[in-house]
Design brief:
7 helices; about 210 residues; two-stranded antiparallel sheet; alpha/beta; 6-stranded mixed beta sheet; Rossmann fold
Length: about 210
């Protein structure tokens, strides 16, 4: 779920302004999965714009305090959320760790980098939620380390049904600053797209894996 409507609109606005999110319904991107997509999101660009990264950092931090209460450690999902996770942890004055997709094959063979103890309360920071698979993989690693994962916060979610089901199945709370629905509303309101393009973009979100054949 989104934190609140005002945050969702403001976040969508700034992500569009700096081209962290690009909408190209007439010239779609091709994802690594092979899906044709009219949207491309790279929230790491936020780090290059100090006023916007500060907005993201402070908004995430304040909502973590409201929604999750006492937190001992902030965890970022590698690699996209390491930067913003560090900023959030610094703002809250908390330790930071990050979680790799899998354990290293050499050295100490860590999957979790940094210091965390069993029983500590952890909130996971993510930059983008698509299916939720990689994000929940990080949660699984933390749970195997016997920490208490209170939930996850992310900058943006595509709002796919599969991601909602995956988070529900894993029983992991998720809050995002903005999502696809609010993005389209903001893009239309600011004339970034027109109503016809909005319809095309909405169709993609309903069936992303088959959209290129529609």
């Amino acid at each position: 779920m989104i934190f609140d409507k005002e945050t969702a609109k403001r976040t969508a606005e700034v992500l569009l302004q700096i081209n962290a999110i690009k909408l190209q319904p007439n010239d779609p991107f091709t994802w690594a999965s092979g899906w044709k997509s009219p949207i491309y999101c790279d929230n790491r660009i936020v780090l290059s714009f100090p006023p916007i990264r500060n907005y993201i950092r402070e908004t995430m931090a304040k909502h973590i305090e409201v929604h999750y209460g006492k937190v001992d450690v902030i965890a970022g999902v590698a690699t996209g959320a390491i930067g913003i996770g560090i900023l959030v942890a610094e703002y809250l004055g908390l330790p930071f760790i990050y979680v790799r997709p899998e354990a290293k094959s050499h050295g100490r063979q860590n999957q979790i980098e940094g210091f965390v103890e069993a029983g500590q309360n952890v909130v996971v920071v993510e930059d983008l939620i698509s299916t939720g698979k990689s994000s929940l993989n990080a949660v699984k690693a933390l749970e195997e380390a016997k920490v208490n994962v209170k939930g996850m916060v992310a900058i943006f979610s595509y709002g796919f049904d599969i991601s909602r089901k995956n988070f529900e199945t894993a029983n992991v709370a998720l809050h995002t600053l903005s999502n696809y629905e609010n993005l389209l509303e903001q893009a239309l309101e600011t004339m970034y797209i027109n109503s016809k393009e909005q319809e095309v973009l909405a169709l993609w979100n309903d069936n992303p894996s088959e959209w290129n054949t529609i």
